[in-house]
Amino acid sequence: MKRLLPFIVAILLVSLSGARGEEPSERKIEDSQPLHDAEKASPPGEAYRTPLAGEAYRTVLFGYPVEVPFRDRRDVRAFSVGANVYTPAVGEDNFIPIAALYWNKQNDPTRLRAIVAVFMNELEVARRFGNVELIGRWENDTVPFPSTEVSRGSEVKGSSIIWGTFSGYAGAGVRYPVHPFQADNDLRLQLLYQAGYLYSRPTDDTAPTVLLPPDTFLQGLKLRGRYDGMRRNLMEMVHSGVSLGFDADMVRRDRWGDANYGGGLFRGEDTRDYVKVSGFLTAATKVPWLSERDRLIVSIHAGYSPGSTLDRFSAFRIGGGLYPNEAEDMRRPYYPGALYNQFPVTDYIVTNFEYRREILFCLFLHLRGTLISGKRPDFQPDELELLKDRGEAFSLGITSGMPWKSQIYFEYAYDEEALRDDLSGSSFLVLWSKAF
To answer: Helix, strand, coil shares of the chain as percentages rounded to 5?
Structure first.
């Protein structure tokens, strides 16, 4: 059950930042009726140009005028509802509902970003002084329901526990606007101090061999860098440019001990202190020799922990959801069809290749291939073992604008053995997002 609620957040990030829709006028006009050149995406005689995020846009669609007003991308509020269906089940999950809220506001010199999902929340506030920023951040994962791990395609009931963590961050950094100088285009380097708390409890299904570490305060440092030079289209999907970044975490638990989460023993002296580094690179461009409507998007996400010092609570987590498009979400490693945070891994690399076709200015077709490789703990053997996993997935998606400033996304994904080990399977995702 713990996986259901946090899955909301990861799904939400990509779609909410630009939930839009175009409402046709009731008055039908002829396609030949002239429009003001200033309101067209591409004047007569020029090659077609995809309408971009925030721009005012006017066109004729099936004989009806469509007008998209200018949108201030510095203030975005939205919510999403939807569901993900798996066949066969991943662990014991066949169906996962989705619902959450998102708010991103930039009111110079202050910016705020919040994700609210009851038991999983993120809040970041920054105040700028020239190119220097002071930053405060809060995040919590305190779902009060049992969490079980999936191993070799099955849910390991004996690994069932209730656990949670919450942390506050404070620090400073530098921030510079970069080309193409939109609301989300910047270069950042930040250093944050982290102070938090981690707790865990057994459940009725917890195996007698499970040994949980003591509840503990934790503290550490986070160094993170970001560069976003992406131009995004009307639906807030990456259109052209490059986005890259890294996160480096160094953390110490104040009280710690040996732990067994249903498999081998994690020794306290090996896992009390840990360092982990992750990075990403995403590039979007026009497909050579084809039109503006045809885009190629490539992304690489990787993570590494020296000495394999990560455990169930500190491991990198790879999950599914929507493909990352929002600037703050680009760091998230994505594997289509996966449950939220399904893969606890110590090292990983995930590569995505996407071809996207703009059918209409508000309708897009996605074809995507994904490769994954990583090491993750096995929760079934008596001795600690890190499994070297490889897998691949293929997905087909459709993004469409809808009335009432909204959009809808459909996705079918087929996984080759990564989610269910020796068993392949499919997943279906539908998500409706609305700005308000």
So the answer is: 5, 60, 35
